[in-house]
DNA sequence: CTAGGGTTAG
């Protein structure tokens, strides 16, 4: 009885340490426990597996299976579900499938969560057909789908560009007696907002309330983000105020949403207040909130402070990602240190970031703004992927350099490749041509733009 | 274990 209770306590400790990213502490507690005769059980290892896969790597988590067998503890379906979730988090779809097979070979029966996670994995790596096959397997294996199954399905369809199918599935499930959860509404509200279908999002929000749910922190964050996205900053801040008044507790997501929006429109002081408040409320920084902080410093031109945070990130055992580097590269460009930015791009390549296209866009823009437009064009030619940012920025900068004919050529090749380009960039070229006396060219360009739009509508 | 946050053009 005592040792059972102690193992439970041990497991609670392990879970707590995993939560605050102190795996070394978790490990030493296990050593101490064993010395005191308290043996870890399956739950202990399952918790550790989850911790390692979140904080270290999938491989580290997987290697715990060996430690388990050395300790003669058998993995359960939960062990495998944790590993599959870890593989999914890292987009390792083949690993997920392998684990699924391994589980079957060991005679462990997958449960609905094994299937849910596998389905989520396929959606995450952009394989909706395979995900749907898993959904059919769920029905075929007579595993009763749970609400999460439908949530994953609806979310996955949306994320893979099948929003109308997701909405149809949602309605048809409702007709068959499915009671949507709050999370189901949150998924749909977020997707409708992102698609700019604000009326439909608002109807969904009303339906959420009519079903007896109270919007949670995530619902509010989603709507706040939607306001900021459509540049209605004051309305977004009002929603924040409403959250405050109603006594909601804010998490890191909410703080980063509001701070990110304020940084974008140059309201750094307010952004700083919110990030400070986040710290004061005891919320640990994760990589995304560190990236927000770095963005904040860059926007102020405090590059040294930004680089200091880089050390802090590594100090707490996190690893900088593509966002971190891109934010810094943009920051360097914005203060005119293009050479530094280019060095940092090389650094990214060395570290194995294959095609840092956003960072390259930043440098192209930086070169253009620094008056090195030919250099920018050279870089443009060498790029593997060019998107509407590349074109919009270059066309604007060409116009600033009065190179309207070159701008016009780029503008058309962008549209003819089926990409969008900023309206303001289009206006800049047409007006530029007109003002420099090339009225005929301006008229022709207008016509060609219209044609390109008709072809690629 | 499924939902919301972090990067670029104007």
From TrEMBL:
TM region(s), chain numbering: none
Keywords linked to the UniProt accession: Repeat
Ranges for the PPR repeats: 41-75, 76-110, 111-145, 146-180, 181-215, 216-250, 251-285, 286-320, 321-355, 356-390
InterPro entries, per the entry: PPR_rpt (IPR002885), TPR-like_helical_dom_sf (IPR011990)
Pfam families hit by this protein: PPR (PF01535), PPR_1 (PF12854), PPR_2 (PF13041)
Signal sequence interval, chain numbering: none
NCBIfam families named in the record: PPR
Family membership: Belongs to the PPR family. P subfamily.
Protein name, entry field: Pentacotripeptide-repeat region of PRORP domain-containing protein
